[in-house]
Amino acid sequence: MELSSIIKYPYHKILLNVQDPRHLINFVNNLNVPNWKCTEITSLSIKKLCGGIANTAYKISCGTKSVTLRLSGFETNKEFDKFKNIEIEFLMLDLLSKMGLAPILYARTLNGSILEYYKGRKIKLEEMRSAMFQKKIASKFVQLHTLSFEMNKKFKITCWHLFKEYTTVIKTHLVEESEILHFQKIEKLILNLKQLVKKTIQSDLCICHNDLNYSNIIINPKTKEVKFIDFEFCAINNPWFDLGNHLVQYCSKDTIIELLPTNKEITTFLQFYLLEKESSLDRINFAVYASRLFMLLATLLWGCWGQMMFFLSNLNNDYPKYYKQKYKVAYYLLDQLRKEFGAKINF
Ligand SMILES: Nc1ncnc2c1ncn2[C@@H]1O[C@H](COP(=O)(O)OP(=O)(O)O)[C@@H](O)[C@H]1O
Ligand SMILES: [Mg+2]
């Protein structure tokens, strides 16, 4: 598929502000949102949706019709913004929404976007690890990962690119000897894992969500339909990263070791994923190995992201607590891997 031929999303060079509902109404009224017409300011409601770290999302409703307003966080400094790959996020969103795999992008503005609002609620952790939802989530991943695309270097941001960016920033900011030594060990581990992946996992790259935690999955409690949101990290990457990254999110946003997926849960999820392709015992064993390796890599990557954010972000989050816990869990996962795939992991 030729990407440039389908990228036509509307881009308005204006700033949206929830404090100015009249302007907001006029703006949304002029977009092509089906069934949306808001004539009375009194019928407009603006509800803040509990958001993630960097952005703020709002549900903007008029009568029974709603859209999502997503405002990007500007609290970070310039050095950070260059890692946000905003252009790719919107191009991917535009492409995927046309395939029904992402919310419709009604408009992009200078500080955010207006998107389709998915009726429902965030999936609960227990639901996400139940076989019924595992099947639905795995099936969505298959749809995403099997999309054909024109390989455009711009869209290719593998975890190795991100490791390089994050570690470069971290190294320029570290000053204390003990911290430098600790980080050198992390970097060595990443390097060894990269070589191991190169030797043992040959996979075609594909379009990946790259951040499928439970806050980014909306379910319709009535129909049990599953939708993915938040394509901020979406890019062309290794599919095993996407799966490993998702599976490791079972341990909640606090990265609790006891909540990590069991081998049975990992296998069941991967069987659903492979079912729609091919599924021999060898293939499943390989999938378990690849996903578990990438569960470790994803944990290390988010650890590096958190450590980088500690230096760059102006937001008042407890980044040290976040990244230290990620590194702790990463070492735990490494231990587990060594126990099960010892012969392969000789570092
Ligand atoms: N298209 C949407 N439909 C319904 N709810 C949404 C939509 N987009 C975002 N939300 C809600 O807003 C929250 C934050 O939005 P998200 O895009 O994930 O931002 P962040 O990057 O901050 O995680 C989500 O967890 C979800 O509850
Ligand atoms: Mg999110």
UniProtKB/TrEMBL annotation:
Keywords: Kinase, Membrane, Transferase, Transmembrane, Transmembrane helix. The chain crosses the membrane at residues 293-312. InterPro entries: Kinase-like_dom_sf. Belongs to the choline/ethanolamine kinase family. This is Ethanolamine kinase 2. One of its GO terms (molecular function) is kinase activity. It comes from the Eukaryota. It comes from Anaeramoeba flamelloides.
